[in-house]
C-alpha cells in the first residue's frame, strides 16, 4: 500500500505541477491582455489627442478661410470702384458726339440711363468730379441736350423728370 500511496502522491504531485504550469500560462496571458489593454488605452488617448489637434487645425483653417474671404470681398469692392472709375475715364476721354461740345458730350456720357430729377442728376455729376459746375449751368446744359435730342423732360406729379435718350 505504501507503493500505491507513492503512486497517488506522484500523480498528485504531477497534477499540482500541471496546475501550477497552467496557472503560470494564464498569468502570462493575463499580463499580455493587461499590456494590450493599456496600449489600447494609450491608443484611445492618442486618438483623442489627434482629434483635438485636428479640431484646432480645422478652426485655424476656417479662420484663415474667413480672413481670405474678407480680403477677397475687399478686393472685389475695390475692383468695382476701379471699374466705375474706368467707365468715367472712358466717358470723359471719348470723342465728342458730332453735334455736341466736348463738355456737353461728357455730361451726356456720365449721366445715368434712368429717369431722374434735375437735383439727383446734378448731385450725380458733381459727385463724379464736376464740383465747380453750378446748378444753373448744369440746367442750361440739360436744356441744350434736350434741344439736340439727347434728353427728354416731362412732368409727373408736379415734378420735372429727365430721361436720357439713345442717340
Show the helix and strand layout.
Blueprint lengths: L1 H92 L8 H9 L7 H11 L6 H13 L3 E6 L2 E6 L3
Antiparallel strand pairs: 1-2
Helix pairs in contact: 1-2
Q: How would you explain this protein's 3D organization?
A:
By secondary structure, the chain is mainly alpha-helical. Among the domains are: 55-93; 97-164, Winged helix-like DNA-binding domain superfamily/Winged helix DNA-binding domain (Arc Repressor Mutant, subunit A), CATH 1.10.10. It is 75% helix and 7% strand. The protein contains 4 helices and 2 strands. It has helices at 2-93, 102-110, 118-128, 135-147; strands at 151-156, 159-164. A two-stranded antiparallel ribbon has the order 1-2. Helix 1 runs antiparallel to helix 2 (102-110). The longest helix is centred in the N-terminal third of the chain and has 92 residues, at 2-93. The protein is rod-shaped.
Question: Which descriptors would you attach to this protein?
Answer:
two-stranded antiparallel ribbon, 7% strand, Arc Repressor Mutant, subunit A, 2 strands, mainly alpha
